[in-house]
Amino acid sequence: MSHDTVDRTLKGPDLLAAAAAEVASWPSISPSRARQVKWVAGEYTRALAHVEHPLGAGARYTELFTAEPVRAYLKLARTGQLRVRQAADPAKASDNSEQIRLEVLRLLVTACDAFDYAELPPQGEPPRKKPVAKRPRSLLRAQLTQLADAPDATTSQLRMLAIGAVVCDTGIRAGEMCALRIEDLSPDLQELRVVRRPQGWHESEAFTELIPLSTLSRAALRRWLPERHRLLERVGGTATALWVSLHGNHQDGRTAPAGTPLMPRGLARAWTRAVTETNIEMAGQPSWTPLPARMEQLRRGVKPTAAPAPMEPDAEKAVLLLDEAADRGRALAGLRRAEGGDEDTAGLVLKARQAVRLAVRDAWAEGIEHSVQLSVLADAGLTDEASLAAAGWEPALLAAIDRGQGWGRPSKAAAAG
User: Fold this and answer.
1) What is the largest CA-CA distance in the chain?
2) Least confident of 258-262, 282-286, 307-311, 327-331
3) DSSP 3-state assignment of 208?
4) How far apart are CA 245 and CA 163, in angstroms?
5) Which pairs count as long-range contacts for 260-265, CB under 8 Å and 24+ apart, including other chains?
6) How far apart are alpha carbons 309 and 367 in whole angstroms?
7) Residues ≥6 apart with Cβ < 8 Å to 213
8) Helix axes 67-78, 31-48, angle to 10 degrees
9) CA 46, CA 402: separation in Å to the nearest integer?
10) Phi, psi for 210 (deg, rounded to 5)
């Protein structure tokens, strides 16, 4: 569900009033929340007139929600300097009030569509939300599953769903997430390769893990990859990043189209934006528990079952693995050509499919590129999408490989020639 954006030519108090009115008009906003929105907008309006605030009445939407003005507003609010009535102890801060202010600021950012400029501080975690992992994670998965079942989910929600599911499976950090490439997805989407770079570690201490993906993650990726493909229509050259932007933006003084790789800061903003919109849309649904606004919350307590993998493939081992994939690919191709209706042939085909899938998985685990494997399989006689699907390749991933590697598969290059 999308909402109207307020007139962004408005400034300062007028912009805040319009944003507050827009938020209050949303069907999902309760009367008590509407009062909180009005309260925060009023406080921020008074902050703009305060001598200790860096902005004034002419502040634009690109400035209001950036780090320094927001910090100044929160400090003035915490110390009671924005109250209409004097409190008994104006210096006494309220953690609950601070939480409400941050929640409302995010709603105002949504109303102004100012996510590209917003630098809101992270919301503090209530003490009861310590990393007791199992129950919160099961609730989160239930909410993501509910979203996965929605046929009318937006592109933003589909990306959020895939990101959230992958984080819940892997405990991946934002920087590690942004480093993911199409190559890091196993051919059948059953596993993900993650290069771990723990905070404070030297680059030489990075290591690679292979982590199994849940049914939810696989379903989410199958829905995200076609959307990603559509977003890459205006992007020239190779396109290998798994997570890309939904809208054009500015990078280093130039305009970047939709489909450019997400950076950690953009990833965090994208998550917050999509979560805010989804929580607003789903508020009031009997089974809905709001999703966390910070990606960091998803990582809490996640301890995936991971297998070590090489940072770079071993050349000698790679040759053996590719030979194995080629042999098993030829066997499968021959059986598919001779496939009839008898049970014996069907059983042989099934065994051949399992054998080539295992060979393909082992080659991927060693770090052999998708395009190299696909070239070997094409030479073995597995050239069309149906044959490659039988060999364990996810069709949505094949399309992504094609986009990232030119034609990707030799069969397509031959057809083009």
Assistant:
1) 88
2) 282-286
3) strand
4) 13
5) 260/235, 261/178, 262/178, 263/178, 264/174, 264/175, 264/177, 264/178
6) 8
7) 165, 166, 169, 189, 190, 191, 192, 221
8) 100
9) 55
10) -110, 125
Give the C-alpha separation, 292 to 311, whole Å: 33
**Which burial class, exposed, middle or buried, applies to 107 when counting CB atoms under 10 A from its CB (0-12, 13-18, 19+)?**
buried
Q: What is the pTM of this model?
A: 0.67
372: tokens are 């190299």
What is the structure's pLDDT at 251? Answer: 59
How do residues 213-244 score in pLDDT, each as one tens digit?
Answer: 999 999 999 999 999 998 888 777 678 999 99
Instruction: Pull the structure tokens for residue 303.
Output: 């301890």
| CA–CA separation, 202 and 209 (whole Å) | 17
Residue 129 in tokens: 């939300």
**CA gyration radius for the chain?**
26
Structure tokens given for 311? 């940072």
Percent of the chain that is helix, strand, coil (3-state, to 5): 55, 5, 35
Angle, alpha carbons 57-59-61 (nearest 5°): 135
> CB count, 10 Å around CB of 347?
10
Q: How far is CA 368 from CA 12, 131, 266, in A?
A: 55, 37, 30
Residue written as token pair 């009030």 = 97
Residue 304 has φ and ψ, to the nearest 5°, of -70, 155
DSSP 122: P
